[in-house]
Amino acid sequence: MAKKKIRVELRKNRTKPPRDRNWTQKFQDPTAEDDSTAAERVRAKGDLSRYRTIVQDEGATADGDSPTEGMPAADAADTRPGRVIRVHGLQSVVEAADGTLHRCAVRPLLKSLATDERSIVTTGHRVWLRDAGNGEGMIERVEPRRGVLTRASRRREHVLVANVDQLVIVMSLVEPDLKPHLIDRYLATAQTGDLAPILCLNKADLVEHANLQPLIGFYSQLGIPTLLTSAKTGEGIDRLRELLQDRATVFSGQSGVGKSSLLNAIQPGLSLKVSTVSEVNQKGRHTTTTAELIRLESGGWVVDTPGVRQLQLWDVIPEEVEGFFAEFRPFVALCAFPDCTHTHEERCAVKNAVARRWIAESRYTSYLGLFAGEAAS
Ligand SMILES: Nc1nc2c(ncn2[C@@H]2O[C@H](COP(=O)(O)OP(=O)(O)OP(=O)(O)O)[C@@H](O)[C@H]2O)c(=O)[nH]1
Ligand SMILES: [Mg+2]
Ligand SMILES: [Zn+2]
Question: How far is the first Cα of the chain from the last one, in angstroms, to the nearest whole number?
Fold first, then answer.
């Protein structure tokens, strides 16, 4: 949702807000309107003194009844915009527009708003902070987010990263082995979070390329940019760097697949910590421990994240799952029952298509797994 600044009466504030100024903001330049705030502050006499400039959601009423979660308006006179770079427990590191970093706590009122969510502030969030000096501050308001990587965690929504455009699904071809069902789960997650997916098959130096064409062809046909990369030899790195340029991207995948290594190859000098020990039989070592927003020299942002063990979809009902499998679409309408779930029904066109190999068996298995998983949760 776009944000706007409006003038509201200080005490009796039941009036409708003035017309929307259509103020949208890119996180690269979150200060776009700060000058006007400063200008208004020096005109503190007369009528104007009964007003203050606040920042709130479009469509919110002036008395602060935000249609989104009751997020309070921030007072633009003493807060400023910033972006969450990383979160350590209760503390978030926020980069203000001038590039300064602030260690911030979250205003207790905001925490109480997060009922379904595991935490109201995550890496990538755009926030308004009250500067307390000494590099410290308080997050007073969290902007509505768009483009999220989420998962379900103990029946709550765990937003791993907010405000990104695309998701690089990093899989290694070996060590650890490729997991097609995890790819499909990530593709569904990308769709629910409004992220453009990119599939990155890493550690290409360790396998014979000839065997990989069907796999690459399969995902490319689904319209997903699919790259073969090696952080070790540099294969595919230029293309990956190009895809990241001027976008906000999150890298996700299992631990040990090479997310941090790829980012180090994309931007030499980044020096992200990567595991040095041998991969074999070392499950879930988790070298990267916190999602961190990194500015790319070539333009854009990227978030390195810790490896995931499982990826349970958030806020998806079983009936929605078929929508994550684009190649099922032509068949769905041909099933005998209009509400066919393509699991046990007779005369199911999807199952028929799987039997005839028009739909890949592996994708159908992924469908069943997601369908059952979402039915259970
Ligand atoms: N041979 C080969 N090894 C790689 C490649 N990419 C990464 N590795 C190795 O794989 C191991 C894991 O790499 P990381 O970059 O730490 O993996 P990660 O995905 O960031 O892991 P977490 O931070 O734990 O989630 C390291 O020992 C890397 O040297 C590659 O393209 N080829
Ligand atoms: Mg890592
Ligand atoms: Zn069916």
Answer: 29
Work out the mean pLDDT of the chain and round it to a whole number.
Answer: 82
Does the Cβ of 236 fall within 6 Å of ligand 1? no
Instruction: Give the helix/strand (H/E) hosting 364.
Output: helix 361-376
Ligand 1 and 260: CB distance under 6 A: yes
| Residue 222 CB-density burial (10 A; 0-12 exposed, 13-18 middle, 19+ buried) | middle
DSSP 62: T
- What is the Å distance from ligand 3's center to 332 Cα? 6
Angle at 126 between CA 309 and CA 66, to 5 degrees: 105
Looking at the CA of 325, name the nearest ligand: 3
Q: Is 257 in the pocket of ligand 1 (CB under 6 A)?
A: yes
Q: What are phi and psi of 204, to 5 degrees?
A: -60, -20
**Using CA atoms, how far apart are residues 206 and 147, in angstroms rounded to an integer?**
34
pTM above threshold 0.85: no
Instruction: Using the atom order of ligand 1, give the atom closest to the CA of residue 285.
Output: 24
Taking only the tens place, the pLDDT of each residue in 310-345 is: 888 998 999 999 999 999 999 999 999 999 999 999
Q: Is 288 in the pocket of ligand 1 (CB under 6 A)?
A: yes
pLDDT tens digit sequence for 121-139: 999 999 999 999 899 999 9
